[in-house]
Amino acid sequence: xxxxxxxxxxxxxxxxxxxxxxxxxxxxxxxxxxxxxxxxxxxxxxxxxxxxxxxxxxxxxxxxxxxxxxxxxxxxxxxxxxxxxxxxxxxxxxxxxxxxxxxxxxxxxxxxxxxxxxxxxxxxxxxxxxxxxxxxxxxxxxxxxxxxxxxxxxxxxxxxxxxxxxxxxxxxxxxxxxxxxxxxxxxxxxxxxxxxxxxxxxxxxxxxxxxxxxxxxxxxxxxxxxxxxxxxxxxxxxxxxxxxxxxxxxxxxxxxxxxxxxxxxxxxxxxxxxxxxxxxxxxxxxxxxxxxxxxxxxxxxxxxxxxxxxxxxxxxxxxxxxxxxxxxxxxxxxxxxxxxxxxxxxxxxxxxxxxxxxxxxxxxxxxxxxxxxxxxxxxxxxxxxxxxxxxxxxxxxxx
Length: 399
Ligand code: NAD
Ligand code: MG
Hints:
The chain is α/β, with parallel strands linked by helices. It is built from 17 helices and eleven strands.
């Protein structure tokens, strides 16, 4: 019998986390390698976390929310499973021995645990794009120094990663990220002025967590992904393009210097890139959804409209500015998306908050040493969030 692969899932109760455990079960059901789970983590959804723990029997289960520890203990009473809570417990969980750590916590809250796992030499399957945006070069260097491997889970970056000539990066001219355009692709700015959180999270192709759904609606998600691609594949901003592709079948493309363009395709389902990351550099068979190109008939493309979706241009500006700017972009966007979901901010003001926060914070001098890049990014994150909150409050008062 083959040895089981030991996996930790950080953010197991979220959209990507749930899909990860489902793909693992599907690979096992198809006769593939068995998995063992070292760690599962969640936050508020204790019922789901406990259910996952009973199914997978991890060594350790952590909730980020310390006020829910007793509830988690009660839910797993009698099970031989260690239980813990809080941000430090998350970091300790992330360094438990595992062959693969799926980092699928949402937002900058996932940074410390992803950073910790990166230092262990494990395979880091990274869904948490925000940690790459906040300290991408240092995170990559940390994985390399520890002898580990970084495998992107974000579908666009998985696509590029799968076709990228890793041993000959100089043969790449540029990468082209595809974007669905989100639920408001065809709306005017006047129409977008009054959209509700319910409309923003109703994505036409992808079923995702609330924050990334809002990011897709503003296209800040594609902005974050431009920065993510720059750091993952060592490319400057002017070699990263975005094209809107409403069907979400081509997940991204790599244009070579000789004019050849390579693309990766698949159904718009995160389970495909998750399965890829779980088995990389191998491939695992499972009962995967497949493409039916004849039935699809056609694929369409259009240029992104930065007038209607200014977050794209702001992200490019942050990437070009470098230094702390990408972390500021991320923090301001997270604060603004949260405020929109809480009905404290109008949809169009999300990008306005990011813009103003970038202008106010980016002059700030922050030391960024390689060893402390995570700590520095978190300090920048805190400053930018405070500033964004001030801007949000001012906007709310003026509304
Ligand atoms: P989600 O909101 O569905 O799940 C988030 C997970 O993080 C949950 O397990 C939650 O318990 C945990 N969490 C939330 N706040 C936390 C905190 N403060 N501390 C610790 N844990 C916390 O999010 P998602 O849609 O699964 O996205 C997860 C990550 O994957 C994000 O970075 C997102 O950008 C990225 N991603 C998601 C998709 C998708 O289809 N959902 C696609 C590409 C990339
Ligand atoms: Mg994506």
